[in-house]
Amino acid sequence: MQLPNRTTLMPMMIGTSLLLAACGGGGSSSSDNDNTSGSSSPQWVQGTFANYSTLANQCSVPLTQKLWLRSWSNDTYLWYDEIIDRDPAPYSVAEYFDLLKTNELSDTGNEKDNFHFSMSTEEWELLNGSGASVGYGMELSLRQASTGVSRQVTVAYNEPNSPASEAGVSRGAIIVSVDGVSVANANDSDSIDILNAGLFPSESGQQTVFIVRDLNAQTDRSVTLTAQTVVSTPVQNTKTIQTANGKVGYLQFNSHIATAEKGLYDAMTTLSNAQVDDLVIDIRYNGGGLLAIASQLAYMVAGDSATENHVFERTSFNDKYPTMDPVTGQALTPMPFINESLGFNTSLLRSGVTLPTLNLNRVFVLTTSGTCSASEALMNALRGIDVEVIQLGDTTCGKPYGFYPTDNCDTTYFTIQFKGVNDKGFGEYSDGFVPSTNPTVDSEVPGCALDDDLTHALGDTDETLLSAALYYRDNNSCPATATAIARAPAKTTFIDPGFMLQDTRNQNVLQNNRILTPLASEQ
To answer: CATH number for the domain including 348?
Structure first.
């Protein structure tokens, strides 16, 4: 198989994540001084756009940085003709970037672009390369009652060898208080600031005192956690479940970052050697990442015969570039199902190694609203080659779009540049993939609507989503609990301690999602 040029493998389908340490976005502050003196300095002229390459990396003049953003967006943004061309002078660099997006709504009345953000390049390189970031190593589930009465923060999972795991703060533990401030009832700005500072540490070495109630415990306990740089483990809990009807493989896949290539290779090798009959992929907290990783995983699930002469995804850019990728300058070519390693981290796995395969004609996926982007592309691509996808959990985030992370002046910007469709030409799932017992449209997937079960460990066969997958496998129907899903009372946001996982909106909403708000203003 001929692989695409390496540069075409780097577009990101990044799920909207809570980039916890990056909420500032890396742009200049509101005190930016637009030094526009001198006749040679570039100026804003409405409707006129300089080539953005001539404006790049001129970091001493904020106006030039903003004009670079403006021209770059006008050239590569998927909906460039829906950006209002504003004079950048009154805005900081970060503020101006926030405005360089569409304000239009989708056909269903939702915001068309919920995925516009930036972060420091240094932090982005750490996150993308290894998932490294400052934190305690625990992903949090934040449930804020729609009535505005109380909030609850629960640990969704922790990273191995992290401060949280070493202190025994694991899935299902409820954070009762942070440095003496009640999570449920804090409602003044000072208390909210303490909660945010403790839950989302910005510096290594920061110590925070938590009162936690562990899963099934009758009493609370005090735990002091010290923030440190935590490296995420994107593939965890690979196991084989022996059932009366054969072997079922299970793996927890948290993010499509570079180190996931080796983790997936090892996991799928283990499951292939075990000759599993079915596979459950737990992507409930996977907000996306490298499309090439998703393509490799899809190939390992389906195998040679199912993927031969088919494509993983076809991408398209804005109408200025019907046949060319505006970022790489190369002709548009579909991304194949990739059947060998690419060597994202050669110290872990060299390039050119043939990938293991399971050769399955169906796969079970466990999802939440935090399942996003490259994870959705994985589901869509498999459906495009008639591998049956059974979805257990909640509706996914809805992001059939991607971007090339682009650096300018030590800030990396993420703006929607392309959209993708599968081998059958389907890619309209902007409202997410919906598990349904009676699918009627292409964005509805056979399966069962269920809430995330924080009362059992991930990979536990009694955990609601995994249990439902095993039940569906035997009965081709949903368990009775699937009809009892209750969505109305709570709004859940999944908060990753360090990598991009779930529910990023634009810069401002990203901050609102990662930062707790006073009860009086909660909706």
So the answer is: 3.90.226.10
